[in-house]
Amino acid sequence: MNVMTTNLLAGAVLMMSGAAANAADVELWRLDCGEIAVGDLALFSDTYNYSGEKRTLTDSCYLIRHDKDYMLWDAGLPAALIGAKVDKSAALAPTLAEDLPTQLARIGIKLEQISRLGISHNHFDHVGQASTFPGATLMIGAADLAQFKADPLPFAVDPGFIKPWLDGTSKVDPISGDRDVFGDGSVVILATPGHTPGETSLLVKLAKTGPVLLSGDVVHFEEQFANHGVPSFNHDRADTLASMERLTGIAKSLDATLIVQHDAADIAKLPAFPKSAN
């Protein structure tokens, strides 16, 4: 091996060592953002997979620490639903046990420490407590942001939940395509349209746990990746199926843990709050 080759190899090793030493410390918490009892699960598959079934959806949110920066992923059900009794006769019956500020306080996080609020999509069960964090930059698919101004409003979309950003008093960052949130590849918002036109998912790369994929509402149950059941209220069926394929492809390529945010069995792949994954 000649001197030039030796020097190049040594330089490459030093660069890799430096990158590893400078890698951000990333931590992930799973938060409880409510439950939704579904009286007729047929709504969630246009291929009749769930006719006559009932199920309770989890509503999960996630806190990501990137060194000293904090990002919240999804904002769950509205705080007004705390303690709400479940109406078993209703098609959808949401309830909430504890709000986000209460949970964040349990791990010593103040509301003003949340600098970014990433929203997978614009439905009420993912933006319900968004206005609790007016100091955060709202990161949401541009097509979903546009729907808050539509007339008539689409299914499950309520502009009141993101009023500070629509009024211009808080900063909003509309996203088209993928977005590397911190610029180092550790937290990436992924374009996964279909459920809504601007639906997104989140890739979080953890040092010990490995890559974690948070699904948004690309599917609502893990088995939908295999049975291709698409909710009848989705924006676009073909886009939904393509996004399913993209997420499973990424999970396979990166050997990532894929978390379906509404599936109780799936969210249990991550530690229960207040424990975190890193």
Task: Please tell me about this protein's structure.
It is a single chain. With 278 residues, the chain is an alpha/beta fold. It contains eight helices and 13 strands. It has helices spanning 3-22, 100-106, 124-127, 142-147, 163-166, 224-227, 237-254, 264-267; strands at residues 26-38, 55-66, 69-73, 92-95, 114-118, 137-141, 172-175, 179-180, 187-191, 200-206, 210-214, 257-259, 276-277. The strands form two sheets. Strands 1, 2, 3, 4, 5, 6, 7 and 13 form an eight-stranded mixed β-sheet that branches. A five-stranded mixed β-sheet has the order 8-9-10-11-12, with helices on one face. Strand 2 (55-66) and strand 3 form a beta hairpin. The longest helix is centred in the N-terminal third of the chain and has 20 residues, at 3-22. 40% of the residues are buried. Residues 3-21 have low confidence and may be disordered.
Give average pLDDT, whole number.
92
Into which percent range does the helicity of residues fall? Answer: 10-25%
Radius of gyration: 20 Å
Approximate strand percentage: 25-35%
Q: SSE order in H/E notation? A: HEEEEHEHEHHEEEEEHHEHE
What structural class do helix, strand and pairing data support? alpha/beta
- Uncertain regions: pLDDT < 50 for 5+ in a row? 3-21
Cα-to-Cα separation, first versus last residue: 40 Å
Gross morphology is globular
Total number of β-strand segments? 13
* Biggest sheet record: 8 strands, mixed
| Secondary structure tally, helices | 8
